[in-house]
């Protein structure tokens, strides 16, 4: 096991009915005027936003509403939120939604606390976040894990770049995780969430450190539970038992726990971000579309690891490690298909040309200036080849 530091400060309030705690929590964390951030309207239709507003009002906390955040959230929208938050003099940011809403809210929080800096400078790494505005989260979809993660992902619509920012300042103060708030989700979005949750652990589990026992076994257990309960949550998002298991796994999968003491790989996430930036496809689907191809590409020399995954996660048996490894990859793809996820870029239903693939490899390698991955380090040519094979 390698040395690590883990700053995981988010207070979790978990369970059915916990949305009603919003006002009490904001008050306890010192908020008095809140920017309520939300998406395209699901929380209005379900009545959730009104319930949150009522909970704030009961504590004498005023709220300004800022809706319309799109999936694969855009930079310009976050900039608008910064301006609104500054003019309304809010002191607390409360996103009610999924990763897109939460990441936008994180960006707004940084922008309000640092009004002299354009927020994209943080994503470009030309500026470093050193303070932010207080932020809590009400989660409505188990998927991105942003509710307890240290990262936030934005798309710059002017350049077409979808980039992440990791900083301890991205950790929310609290996360209300109420499985009933996810009951209105469309099945496809639950499928995307299940794929993303698995990928947050897979992108950590398949790394270059192989003697990391507790972390590896936690990762395997998390994957088994998501595989067991994910299909029921997809079939019926109002199944609060299945949704509870998936929702809690979503946070643990991306708060750092399943990778401590290792080196994170996250190559597949980088491939997926390019797909989402170019075709605006849902994040979880973008990952499922590439994972199997990536796995077969990096398999050579790593058969032992993939065979262990096949045994401990999928319960497969066999003496031939290479065959077992391939069976584990196949089982993963079959599972993705069973929950409505794509297993190739072609399955995404977009027109993709060779020029598009080259554009994505260019973006993923940031113009030939970076490699991705740790289990196997991948350069621009590897990226292009993986995109081609995933087609
Ligand atoms: O916008 P509304 O109308 O709310 O609809 C949303 C949206 O269309 C809908 N939805 C959410 N909760 C609902 C609901 N519909 C009905 N009932 C509910 N309870 O679901 C759709 C997708 O929402 P989104 O927030 O985009 O989903 P997700 O949580 O998957 O977030 C994806 C974004 O997070 C980023 C992704 O790249 C993507 O931009 N990620 C953020 C990470 C982080 N900050 O740590 C890590 C991840 O790897 C990921 O990159
Ligand atoms: Zn993800």
Notes on the structure:
With 391 residues, the chain is α/β, with parallel strands linked by helices. The protein folds into 2 domains: 172 residues, Rossmann fold; 204 residues, Dehydroquinate synthase-like, alpha domain (Up-down Bundle), CATH 1.20.1090.10. It has 15 helices and 8 strands. The strands form 2 sheets. It has a 6-stranded parallel beta sheet, sandwiched between helices. Helix 7 runs antiparallel to helix 8, helix 8 runs antiparallel to helix 9 and helix 10 packs across helix 11. It is globular, with a radius of gyration of 20 Å. It starts with 10 loop residues before the first strand and ends with a helix. The model has no long low-confidence stretch (mean pLDDT 97). The site of 5,6-dihydroxy-NADP has 36 residues, from helix 2, helix 5, strand 6, helix 7 and helix 11.
In short:
The chain has 391 residues and is an alpha/beta fold.
What is the topology?
Layout: E1 11-14, H1 22-28, E2 33-37, H2 42-45, H3 48-58, E3 62-66, H4 75-87, E4 92-97, H5 99-113, H6 120-124, E5 134-139, E6 151-156, E7 161-166, E8 174-177, H7 187-205, H8 213-235, H9 240-254, H10 267-279, H11 283-298, H12 303-314, H13 321-338, H14 354-364, H15 380-390
The structure holds 5,6-dihydroxy-NADP and zinc ion.
Tell the overall outline.
globular
> Which segments are poorly predicted (pLDDT under 50) over 5 or more consecutive residues?
none
Helicity level, as a percent range? 40-55%
**Biggest β-sheet, characterized?**
6 strands, parallel
* Total helical elements: 15
| Beta-strand content estimate | 5-15%
- What ligands does this structure carry? 5,6-dihydroxy-NADP, zinc ion
CATH superfamily of the largest domain: Dehydroquinate synthase-like - alpha domain
Give the radius of gyration: 20 Å
């Amino acid at each position: 096991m390698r040395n690590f530091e883990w700053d995981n400060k988010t207070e979790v309030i978990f369970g059915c009915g916990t949305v009603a705690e919003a006002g009490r929590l904001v008050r306890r964390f010192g908020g008095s005027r809140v920017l309520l951030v939300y998406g395209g309207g699901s929380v209005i239709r379900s009545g959730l936003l009104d319930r949150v507003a009522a909970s704030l009002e009961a504590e004498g906390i005023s709220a300004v509403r800022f809706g319309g955040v799109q999936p694969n959230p855009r930079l310009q929208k976050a900039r608008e939120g910064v301006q609104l938050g500054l003019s309304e003099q809010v002191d607390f940011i409360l996103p009610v939604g999924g990763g897109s809403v939460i990441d936008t809210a994180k960006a707004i929080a940084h922008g309000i606390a640092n009004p002299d800096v354009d927020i994209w400078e943080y994503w470009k790494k030309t500026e470093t976040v050193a303070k932010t505005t207080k932020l809590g989260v009400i989660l409505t979809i188990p998927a991105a894990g942003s509710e307890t993660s240290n990262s936030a992902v934005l798309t710059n619509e002017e350049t077409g770049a979808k980039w992440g920012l990791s900083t301890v300042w991205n950790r929310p103060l609290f996360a209300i995780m109420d499985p009933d708030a996810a009951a209105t989700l469309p099945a496809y979005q639950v499928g995307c969430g299940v794929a993303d949750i698995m990928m947050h652990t897979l992108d950590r589990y398949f790394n270059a450190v192989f003697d990391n026992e507790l972390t590896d076994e936690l990762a395997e257990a998390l994957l088994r539970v998501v595989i067991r309960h994910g299909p029921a949550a997809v079939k019926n998002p109002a199944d609060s038992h299945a949704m509870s298991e998936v929702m809690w796994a979503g946070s643990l999968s991306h708060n750092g726990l399943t990778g401590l003491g290792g080196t994170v790989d996250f190559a597949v996430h980088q491939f997926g971000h390019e797909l989402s930036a170019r075709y605006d496809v849902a994040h979880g689907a973008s990952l499922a579309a590439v994972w199997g191809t990536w796995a077969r590409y990096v398999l050579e020399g790593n058969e032992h690891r993939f065979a262990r995954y096949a045994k401990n996660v999928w319960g497969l048996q066999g003496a031939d490690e290479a065959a077992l490894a391939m069976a584990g990859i196949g089982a993963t793809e079959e599972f993705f298909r069973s929950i409505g996820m794509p297993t190739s870029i072609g399955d995404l239903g977009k027109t993709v040309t060779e020029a598009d693939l080259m554009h994505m490899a260019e973006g993923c390698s940031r113009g030939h200036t970076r490699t991705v991955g740790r289990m196997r380090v991948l350069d621009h040519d590897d990226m292009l080849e993986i995109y081609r094979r995933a087609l």
